[in-house]
């Protein structure tokens, strides 16, 4: 008998190369411990509902009605569903060609793409074309489609921030491209220095790589910083001069926890800059229903919007989208609801605002509690979480800890995070999963545990960290001076 | 030892004559000293502080830098100081970073980087994302089900809306795609009740809900919610799908096959298509990796093979034998491919067939399993039409059941079975629910599949729940059982009648032969086109079958897919039509089609 077709040795090498830390070793160990009955606090994935965040009521009512359209004819439907949810369900059903059970256009329902375009216009002050908006099963699918379109082979490079959300490194490996890192400056609050970018590009070119696109994550994941308008301008100018497609991961645009730097979309900045730049830079922006105060991760709803992409390329992207037939329709409706929420005067408006504000304000307080908590720990420094859903503290691991990690055949931060998990049940992601400068160690945690649990979590972290440092630090007395 | 050197230059001026930025550059810069603990906090702000640090590292030329800073201090704005500080800081970090060698290598481009500063015109190379510069595999893909004909149909539909009466028909009838609910098929009530409740669980314990929903749907929703950690249908699930739902699906498979199924073999996906993509991704390394595909085939396969850069190795289904699959032909194709240097890695079988509608006989399935086992091929079994069988003498058997009944176990054959919520009697295409059952792979391969699934986090929860529901519908005695059964049988028997009516109608047309749709949702008639028609098609620069399909669309509003989109024996012409128009519309479809066909044949008679 011949060997099996799919032996490990004969597997696509690009698949083997993929690393995806968010669901890696730590997560698997945490799941094991959970099975053994230990209480695990999952802070490894930005998955708010899993940590007890309640879904917003109005969108759930609308989608529940769309799922069961026969309810709309029931005289008693008004007993449990408000009139504006009923009206909205009818509206969305009228946009479909056969309810939630029919494939939509491969780019998503035209009516919802129109709502997205209107949202973008309200946000940016520039009109947006629904034909250039593609709905997707979550933002990840969109990122994958676009990178698949861009990457021809390993000679094609994509500039990616380090630390970065591993979707990018994983997808680039999968499609056989080259990741060209640019480092965010931790001492400058994870700022992006264009000079650094130039170096990265020059260095990649030396290696024969054609740098084709640049990814920015704003607000940052895992780093939580918000890009300023001036910084975005520099980036766009850079893309213009270097002829790069700018991929703007803006999925955390609702998650802003300070007032100095509100979210500003790359598209708005681009169009503000005027020609020739506003006509020259190709931009793809991504958004999702999984983040913000929605947190509807399980729905897999998202979109990308293309700016300055030539029609022929758009057609090719459309063709690739059509192979997957269509994004899921309930997810599309969630997206429609996100970009077009209840308005003042609607029956559900007050409730919607109360719920969403409540979530956002609590996230803001949790961001504060968490960063303060980390900064009060020994050998831990953490930039303030300006936006997104994560804290990314730097852990100064003492040499003895690094040695112990080596002995255990673990990357030092994985070693630390595993110990943290075993001791406290807090499941984090080691910084090495996102990339970090050599010899510097971090971990990523979401700010999503329930607010009332937060102080206890930070206490147990501090206690663990103190003990860990005490165990591995030399000259204890000295370094405490 | 090489001498480290710093160069402190002023950036180029731009066209407006304003000065550019300052650049700190260094030559032969190598990291000499490690960053000392405790210094971190001091490394901010004051440029002088930075220069002092740099001097400490023994770079004599930074003394000049210090002076420069001093001069600038007096002359320039605070902004400039910040720039200087940042540059110096960069320089420090670069020195300290292990990749600092990159930096000095890039130095020769320092002058060009000032050119960048001066905001010249962009490089003249092709736009970053133009058709010339995108992934050529993307260009190669073809997906006829939503191709040119559909674009024309959408245009005609718009014209009809804007100007009723502008065409000889008043609606477009989409027979191009298996999308039953878009043509009026109703969803199964029980499934939708459960989904609705899971989407809005807060109403579950309200008494009014009892009046609106069946009691077993409420019960089932509770069961499902209890399987989801935190009852959170808005959370990402396990990358393979919610464990409890996979348990249910595995139980459903076991009941169907009479052989056990393991929930950890199940990967829930957004419809079956992403699962097919995932497998192609794993299997295809380069263009010499081949995947055996039936011709005619569902273009998902040709497209995903092209996208992942592999080679499609065709095997022809025998139209004269009811689209049967000849093992001898398979063997010949494999040998032929191997002689061309292609490594054949997997065999795709679509059962019931798409677009061909045949249901494989059990014997034939056994031969296929043996063949894959002998040749060491992964068997990719597209079984999404498993509920769609319309003839009493044929039954659906899963390849898993066949291989287990032959005595082949986990170790003997690698088998992937795809299932979807989009087909069957449920037809829930918009939900994007589906799964693959993966057996006969080693744990390290399994891990890789899991990893791939993780990158996309998870499939949509509503689709996951529905996948579990179609594999465990209401049972005898449940409140909804009778209505469920009536709905299911109504849909399936109507589909069988529609298949028969359309098949008879097609066979009565001049020059058309059509095999029976034993299963699935399609008919794939062969049309004998006259030389005149073929010439006319050539003149219009389209394939003859596409020419026919376009003429049909323009005359009747019926959208079909030309056979060339699926592959066919060269010189033969076909089209695919679904059997999905609602039953009351079928007579009109038949008469419109008959009338058109007669005219077409008359017009192009040789």
UniProtKB/TrEMBL annotation, chain A:
Pathway: Amino-acid degradation; L-alanine degradation via transaminase pathway; pyruvate from L-alanine: step 1/1; Photosynthesis; C4 acid pathway. Keywords: Aminotransferase, Pyridoxal phosphate, Transferase. It catalyses: glycine + 2-oxoglutarate = glyoxylate + L-glutamate; glyoxylate + L-alanine = glycine + pyruvate. SUPFAM superfamilies: PLP-dependent transferases. Its cofactor is pyridoxal 5'-phosphate. InterPro entries: ALAT1/2-like (IPR045088), Aminotransferase_I/II_large (IPR004839), PyrdxlP-dep_Trfase (IPR015424), PyrdxlP-dep_Trfase_major (IPR015421), PyrdxlP-dep_Trfase_small (IPR015422). GO terms for cellular component: peroxisome. Residues 85-449 form the Aminotransferase class I/classII large domain. GO terms for biological process: photorespiration. GO terms for molecular function: alanine-glyoxylate transaminase activity; glycine:2-oxoglutarate aminotransferase activity; L-alanine:2-oxoglutarate aminotransferase activity; pyridoxal phosphate binding. The keyword DNA damage does not apply. It holds the Pfam family Aminotran_1_2. The keyword Transferase applies. Belongs to the class-I pyridoxal-phosphate-dependent aminotransferase family. Alanine aminotransferase subfamily. Homodimer. This is Aminotransferase, class I/classII. It comes from Dillenia turbinata. The lineage of its organism: Eukaryota, Viridiplantae, Streptophyta, Embryophyta, Tracheophyta.
Automatic annotation (TrEMBL), chain B:
GO terms for molecular function: L-alanine:2-oxoglutarate aminotransferase activity; pyridoxal phosphate binding. Keywords: Aminotransferase, Pyridoxal phosphate, Transferase. InterPro entries: ALAT1/2-like, Aminotransferase_I/II_large, PyrdxlP-dep_Trfase, PyrdxlP-dep_Trfase_major, PyrdxlP-dep_Trfase_small. The keyword Transferase applies. Residues 229-591 form the Aminotransferase class I/classII large domain. Its cofactor is pyridoxal 5'-phosphate. SUPFAM superfamilies: PLP-dependent transferases. Residues 1-43 are annotated as: Disordered. Its EC number is 2.6.1.2. Pfam families: Aminotran_1_2. It comes from the Eukaryota. Pathway: Amino-acid degradation; L-alanine degradation via transaminase pathway; pyruvate from L-alanine: step 1/1; Photosynthesis; C4 acid pathway. Residues 33-43 have a biased composition (Basic and acidic residues). The keyword Transferase applies. Homodimer. Belongs to the class-I pyridoxal-phosphate-dependent aminotransferase family. Alanine aminotransferase subfamily. This is alanine transaminase.
């Amino acid at each position: 008998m011949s060997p099996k077709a799919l032996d490990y040795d004969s597997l696509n090498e690009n698949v083997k190369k993929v690393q995806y830390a968010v669901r890696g070793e730590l997560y698997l160990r945490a799941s094991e411990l959970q099975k053994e009955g230990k209480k695990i606090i999952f802070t490894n994935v930005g998955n708010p509902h899993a940590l007890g965040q309640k879904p917003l009521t109005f969108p759930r009512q609308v989608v529940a009605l769309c799922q069961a359209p026969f309810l709309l004819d029931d005289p008693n439907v008004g007993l449990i569903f408000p009139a504006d949810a009923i009206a909205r369900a009818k509206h969305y059903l009228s946009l479909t060609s056969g309810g939630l059970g029919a494939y939509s256009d491969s780019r998503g329902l035209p009516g919802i793409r129109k709502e997205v375009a209107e949202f973008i216009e309200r946000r940016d002050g520039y009109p947006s074309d629904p034909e250039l908006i593609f709905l997707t099963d979550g933002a990840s699918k969109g990122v994958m489609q676009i990178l698949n379109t861009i990457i021809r082979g390993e000679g094609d490079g994509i500039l990616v921030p380090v630390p970065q959300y591993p979707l990018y490194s994983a997808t680039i490996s999968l499609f056989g491209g080259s990741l060209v890192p640019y480092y965010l400056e931790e001492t400058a609050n994870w700022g992006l220095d264009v000079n650094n970018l130039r170096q990265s590009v020059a260095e990649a070119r030396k290696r024969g790589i054609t740098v084709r696109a640049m990814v920015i994550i704003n607000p940052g994941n895992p780093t939580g910083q918000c890009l300023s308008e001036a910084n975005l301008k520099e980036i766009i100018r850079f893309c213009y001069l270097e002829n790069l497609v700018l991929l703007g991961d803006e999925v955390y645009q609702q998650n802003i926890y300070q007032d100095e730097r509100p979210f500003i979309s790359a598209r708005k900045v681009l169009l503000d800059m005027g020609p020739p730049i506003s006509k020259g830079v190709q931009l793809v922006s991504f958004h999702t229903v999984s983040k913000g105060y929605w947190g509807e991760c399980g729905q897999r709803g998202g979109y990308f919007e293309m700016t300055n992409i030539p029609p022929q390329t758009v057609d090719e992207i459309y063709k690739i989208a059509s192979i997957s037939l269509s994004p899921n329709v309930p997810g599309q409706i969630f997206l429609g609801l996100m970009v077009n929420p209840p308005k003042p005067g609607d029956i559900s408006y007050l409730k919607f605002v109360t719920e969403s504000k409540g979530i956002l304000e609590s996230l803001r307080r949790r961001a504060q509690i968490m960063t303060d908590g980390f900064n009060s720990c020994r050998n831990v420094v953490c930039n303030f979480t300006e936006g997104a859903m994560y804290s990314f503290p730097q852990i100064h691991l003492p040499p003895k800890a690094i040695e112990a990690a080596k002995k255990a055949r673990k990357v030092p931060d994985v070693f630390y995070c595993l110990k943290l998990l075993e001791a406290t049940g807090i499941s984090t992601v080691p910084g090495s999963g996102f990339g970090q400068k050599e010899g510097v160690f971090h971990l990523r945690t979401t700010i999503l545990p329930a607010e009332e649990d937060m102080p206890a979590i930070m206490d147990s972290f501090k206690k663990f960290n103190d003990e860990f440092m005490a165990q591995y630090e030399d000259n204890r007395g000295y370094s405490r001076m | 030892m090489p001498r480290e050197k710093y160069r402190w230059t002023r950036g180029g001026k731009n066209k407006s004559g304003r000065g550019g930025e300052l650049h700190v550059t260094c030559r032969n810069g190598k990291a000499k000293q490690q960053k000392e603990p405790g210094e971190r906090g001091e490394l901010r702000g004051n440029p002088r502080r930075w220069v002092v640090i740099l001097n400490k590292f023994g770079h004599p030329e930074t003394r000049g830098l210090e002076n420069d800073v001093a001069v600038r201090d007096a002359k320039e704005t605070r902004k400039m100081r910040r720039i200087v500080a940042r540059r110096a800081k960069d320089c420090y970090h670069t020195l300290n970073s292990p990749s600092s060698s990159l930096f000095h290598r890039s130095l020769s481009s320092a002058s060009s980087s000032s050119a960048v500063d001066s905001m010249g015109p962009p490089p003249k190379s092709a736009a970053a994302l133009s058709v010339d510069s995108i992934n050529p595999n993307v260009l190669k893909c073809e997906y006829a089900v939503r191709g040119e004909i559909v674009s024309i149909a959408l245009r005609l539909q718009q014209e009809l809306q804007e100007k009723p009466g502008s065409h000889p028909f008043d609606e477009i009838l989409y027979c191009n795609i298996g999308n039953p609910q878009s043509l009026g098929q109703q969803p199964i009530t029980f499934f939708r009740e459960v989904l609705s409740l899971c989407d809005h669980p807060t109403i579950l314990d309200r008494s009014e809900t009892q009046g609106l929903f069946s009691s077993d749907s409420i019960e089932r929703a509770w069961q499902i919610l209890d399987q989801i950690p935190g009852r959170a249908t808005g959370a990402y699930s396990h990358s393979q799908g919610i464990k409890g739902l996979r348990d249910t699906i595995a139980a459903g498979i076991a009941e169907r096959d009479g052989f056990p199924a393991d929930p950890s073999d199940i990967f829930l996906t957004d419809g079956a298509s992403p699962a097919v993509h995932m497998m192609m991704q794993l299997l295809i390394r380069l263009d010499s990796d081949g995947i055996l595909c039936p011709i005619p085939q569902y273009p998902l396969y040709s497209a995903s093979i092209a996208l992942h850069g592999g080679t499609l190795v065709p095997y022809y289904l025998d139209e004269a034998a009811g689209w049967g699959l000849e093992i001898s032909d398979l063997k010949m194709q494999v040998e032929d491919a191997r002689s061309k240097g292609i490594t054949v890695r997997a065999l795709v079988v679509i059962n019931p067939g798409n677009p061909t509608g045949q249901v494989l006989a059990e014997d034939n399935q056994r031969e296929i399993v043996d063949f894959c086992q002998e040749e060491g091929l992964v068997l990719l079994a597209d079984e999404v039409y498993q509920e769609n069988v319309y003839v009493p003498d044929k039954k659906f058997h899963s390849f898993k059941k066949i291989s287990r009944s032959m005595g082949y176990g986990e170790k003997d054959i690698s088998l992937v079975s795809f299932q979807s919520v989009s087909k069957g009697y449920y037809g829930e295409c918009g939900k994007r629910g589906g799964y693959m059952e993966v057996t006969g792979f080693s744990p390290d391969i399994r891990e890789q599949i899991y990893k791939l699934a993780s990158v996309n986090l998870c499939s949509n929860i509503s689709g996951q729940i529905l996948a579990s529901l179609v594999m465990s519908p209401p049972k005898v005695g449940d409140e909804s059982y009778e209505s469920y059964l009536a709905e299911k049988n109504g849909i399936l028997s109507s589909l069988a009648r529609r298949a028969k009516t359309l098949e008879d109608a097609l066979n009565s047309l001049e020059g058309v032969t059509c095999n029976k749709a034993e299963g699935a949702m399609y008919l794939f008639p062969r049309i004998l086109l006259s030389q005149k028609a073929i010439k006319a098609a050539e003149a219009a620069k389209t394939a003859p079958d596409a020419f026919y399909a376009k003429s049909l669309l323009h005359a009747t509003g019926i959208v079909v897919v030309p056979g060339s989109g699926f592959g066919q024996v060269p010189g033969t012409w076909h089209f695919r039509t679904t059997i999905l128009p609602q039953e009351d519309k079928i007579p009109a479809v038949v008469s419109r089609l008959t009338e058109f066909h007669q005219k077409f044949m008359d017009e192009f008679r040789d």
